[in-house]
User: Fold these one by one.
Assistant:
Number 1:
Amino acid sequence: MATMLSGAAIMDAALLMISATEECPQPQTKEHLMALEIAEIKDVIIVQNKIDLVDKEKVLENYKQIKEFLKGTNYENAPIIPISAQHKINIDVLIKTIQETFPTPERDKGKDPLFLVARSFDINKPGTAIKGLNGGVLGGAMKTGILKKGDLIEIKPGIKTEKQNKIIWEPIHTQIESLITGNQEVSEITPGGSAGIQTKLDPALVKSDSLVGNVAGLHGKMPETLEELNLKQTLLERVVGSKDELVVEPIKMNEILMLNVNSTATVGTVIELKKDSIKLKLKKPVCAFKNERITIARMLGARWRLIGYGAII
């Protein structure tokens, strides 16, 4: 769920995959549908996959289950496209439906640039000479504004260091060497689609997705780095994703919760409880504006389960 929620933060629309070979809904399907609603993703297409593995009657029965499952949700009238990914059946219909159903959102390019980092990696091959090394690469998507080749950028929260026996997070400053989107090098990137930013950073700083969850933008025009979060929370009635219909119990003092904001997943310990708000001490800080929407998950059994959402106050 942490991966799904982090990915949803950089998406405008979604495909919800459901297998025609299983009863609908499965616990994970419920969880993902609720996550899409919380993430406020309005445009969704339901993809009914594996139709080649069952007979016509079973496909139609599964279709009716999907329609019943969607009733009363924001996606009650979402298109349902039966496909076989293995045999490429109806893939053309799915692509056509995506083009007709998912409008390109209007972007405000005048806002301060903010790039959500969903990946970070080293593109150098082993044995590359020092003179031939390329700087570290950030992968993700622009949330707002425009970044251009040559821009000096700040990456927050940055890297974890220790000074005077105290753990702190220091922002990173670097320059954009090149920009790639759609496998093409471009002079600037704007919101919409994924992109790669090659920087002048030491590749050791970005390897193995070490900067995932950071945000990049212009110095002085970035959100605050928050080591504590004040949230106005809304809890769901039932735990989403659990096989049993468990009631969501109130959040408790000192409870550890998983939080997703933008492309960041972190955990926090509840240090203050009020009637409709909570305060958490974060293990890993986040860089976010006030009113940003955050999903809240609780450890139940061996998995984090979605129990609600909140807004930074």
Number 2:
Amino acid sequence: MSTVHFVLQGKGGVGKSLIASLLYQYLHQQGLAVTGIDTDPVNATFAGYKELSVQVLNIMEGDDIDQRRFDSLMEIILQQPEESHIVIDNGASTFLPLCSYLKDNAALDLLDQEGHAVLLHTVMTGGQAVVDTASGLKTLATSFPSSSIVVWLNRYFGEIAMNGKAFEDFKVYKEHLSQFRSIIEVPSRKQSTFGKDLESLLSRRETFETAIHSNLPVMVRQRLKTFWAEVSQEVAKAQLVEVV
């Protein structure tokens, strides 16, 4: 069977493409066959990583989203070889259309029947987006109550808290905890050093492996190496490769 990773969140600019790229790079470094799909019609950031095997799926018909174009996505998934992984980065503007398509067409049931494992990845952030990202998580959990969800905690914009409550005390956490396959913490490091290095790396759409072995200043490479080691450790703990 192949493992299908949908990266979904209704709030834009919270790090979905970052999560997709980190996940892809981790799986690739484990020696696994990985394919990437970018369905974002506005910002195809994931497809901007030229070192990764990512294809853009055009889902637009003129100025409108054509849900029938998601049929092509299903065809691509169903053609994946056994033991492979496919990472799908979906844009904020297509969050509800894709969720609606998957639900109305019983697409996840079909993938399960065909022997494919499915994981729904979503991002929770702090700052002003915390309410919106919590809402996106709730939409996923309620729309697909039988699916496993991987929650990525991204504190780049601040602590993930509402009304003085930490994420573990959120209503959405308590109500849907049984659906969470794992929770992954994106490392939070000093913005003036690690943050600047990461921003530069992401703007170049460069992989960690390439940057670490480049001619960048030695301490920049050291910080990127440290960050990537921490990411890899977090993803390894989630045991996403051994999906059952």
Number 3:
Amino acid sequence: MLETLVIALREGIEAFLIVAITLAYLRKTGRAALASAVYTGTGLALVLSVVAAVLLREMVVTPLYEGLLALVAAVLVITMMVYMTRVARHLRSDIGHKIESAVAQSTGIASFLAIAGFTLLMITREGMETAFMIASLMGQTDTTAMTVGALLGLLLAAALAWGWSRYGHRVNLGRFFQVTTIFLGLFIVQLAIYAFHEFTEAGVLPLDNAYWHIATEPYGPEGQYGAWLSYALVLIPLGWLALAVWRARAPAAAQARS
């Protein structure tokens, strides 16, 4: 449940921010009439993401399939972290440039389709990543808990995005992305171990699959060391957050005492 909550929260806040920044840019540049194109693209992206999630859920679950899914999810998490590290500070200006490129020399329905297509691509990227990452957990977590975690994550993402749009100066999104990046880094380790374990069960690796399948059993979600990793997914990001908050407040506290 925790993994799906954080995944949905992270991906959800990115998607909501993309929509919010796009709408704000359209209003600022006198193109508020194109807001409906943003809603259309977002709606289509959500439909495609749900369809992808359902298709992944309905696929035949085999060790080889679960291993491949976990491996793809790990790669997606890595690319997402690299992407957000590079563009997070310039997300607003990057979206503005892409919008200008999309609607350049376009009028009427062409501009509508350009903005809808831009939004569709941007949001579908987040939705597909979410679908793959959550699907990779299907063999490790109860489906009901996964669903509840994902819904809670989306609700929290919506609340955080609303707070950012209303009280942007008070919401430290930089710290949010740093904490979730630590979580996702540990999540990549978990996915890699799970993928390796499933590949050995399928017997597809060029090594002693039986031996390594047994050797990695304690590192699975229900194993002794796997449980420690699950605890680390919570404790390490929270510890880093507490340290960051303390370091930010320490100079002010020292100045107040002096």
Number 4:
Amino acid sequence: MLQAFVITLREGLEAFLIVAISLAYLRKSGRSELAKAVHWGIVVAVVTSAAGGYLLFNAANQEWLEGPLALVAAVSVLTLTVHMWRAGRQIKGEIEGHLKSSAQRAGVAALTGVFLFTLLMIGREGVETALLLMQLHATPNLATGAAIGVLAAASVAWVWSRFGHRLNLGLFFQTTAIFLFVFVVQLLIQGVHETSEQGYLPFSAAIHDATESWGPDSGFGHLLTYLLVILPFGWLLFRGLTSSFKAHKAVPQHSSAR
């Protein structure tokens, strides 16, 4: 449940922020007529992601797909997480820059550009969410955790839209990135194990036997589960302590008069 919550919280927040920033930029730049392209992009992206997720969860040959899809999800999460770690603070500028190039066109070209931009950005989050949640299909209370994550993401996005200067998005993305890094390790182990079980890899039998003891019920698997919680909270504590130390150092020390 915790994994589903964090996944939908992070992916949902990215999606909500993309929408909020896009609509705000179009209003600010005097191109409010292009907002309908954003709305249609959202609808098509959600429908496409939901259809893709349904097909994945109900695939007849799911055991054959489980390993390769876990590896695809791991690579996708790793690359996007690294990007968000480095560019989390600049997310607003990046989105506005892409929108600016699309909105500068005239007529149908501008509508098409904004629509495709929204479709690709939101669709990417939706497909990634479906891939990640598929790896947790046997997790108890999966739907509950995912739903709570979406609601939390919507709440954070609303707070950001109202009080953006008070919300440290960079720290948020860094903290959830640490969680996802550990989850990527779990996905890689699962993906390699399942893929070797299907005989897709060279030396599949040896790889399958070697990774058998790394499963979720092993000591190493339990350690990764604990690290999913310990490392993000440890990072928050570290950043809080370093921020307090810097703030203390920044306060001028007045020597007492003699």
